[in-house]
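Z., the sequence and structure:
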Amino acid sequence: MHQPEFGDRQAPEVGELTPPTRTLMGPGPSDVHPRVLRAMSTPLVGHLDPSFIEIMDETQELLRYTFRTDNQWTIPVSGTGSASMEAAIGNLVEPGDTMLVPTNGYFGGRMAEMARRAGGDVVEVDAPWGEPLDPVAVQAAFDEHQPDVFGFVHAETSTGVRQPDVPELTSIAHEHDAYVIADCVTSLGGVPLKVDEWDIDAAYSGPQKCLSCPPGASPLTLNDRAMDKVLSREEPARSWYLDLSLLEGYWGEERAYHHTAPITNVYALREALRLVAEKGIESRWARHRETAGALKAGVEAMELEMNADDEYWLPSLNAVRVPEGVDDGAVISDLLEGYDLEIASGLGALEGEIFRIGCMGHSARPENVSLLVSALGQTLAEYGADVAVGAGVEAAAERL
């Protein structure tokens, strides 16, 4: 059969871009704020244009405010949250270093994988999925393994658990002269996070969750101690693109060319962070807690079970146990098709056992919570689950 030459090929017929309008209540992305969308339509300038350098400075200052830090080395990494994660781990973990990672969720496993690829040796501190790390267990792991770097997940997206006792964990690490890396992907801008006060050496996040910004420019902050380790490495980081000693030249005082930054994504992040600063970070934490509290009240009034205990509940990511006999995938599909409402299933050890329901950023609004409780309750009832839909709707409405 004759195969056409490249020049004989017809241009593909592709229509206009018309994705559906969804209500995003999954683990991310969240609904993007209209002001952020407008910022993305701002005309491009060059990545070394004096006007863009001013925007870079403003974005860094807004990130410091949101992270609650004075760290000079606070930047948006060009890439998704996994890029800022790999930048932190890949620069602080040198070949031969030992990194202590948690086993209580999916993203502790990703930390371990990145540490191994950086040439590090990985040891673990154990905790069940659905529970936070116990400082006693962390202390025992440090005494046994003497790790150089300790990573923990502040807000575990796979389990809906918030890690308490952060200052106690960082104190244990620093008593052993280790560096602390915090995964704040689902906490930055949504639940209390205080990098300086809690003595965290490096923290990374993503913009598409509590900041309600499209992925593409991901927050990262390192203190002087951590940056000194990066700049004194005996051999360069294995990733040229994410080598912070090179990125320092672009985001530091020199503004020397390293790569072409995702300019539109930086515009978007700057506007998202402006929204945080305008209302105040404490007010934003409170709004997430109150709105997600209404969601939680509605879910529990329907006699559904939260995966995390109240003490460790993560407002930005609500993990709800799937009722016995219900196909989680079918429920998720029906919500998407029937209500244009997105939630997600579990990951790893909790696959098929929980629904992951986000309440983040611009998605954390009363009308979205009302829709979610009503739609989830009705859909579960259609699949034979014994749920009190009316009680759930009423409980959520009372809180809202």
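The longest strand covers residues 73-79. DSSP finds 13 helices and 14 strands in the chain.

Let me know what you think.
H.
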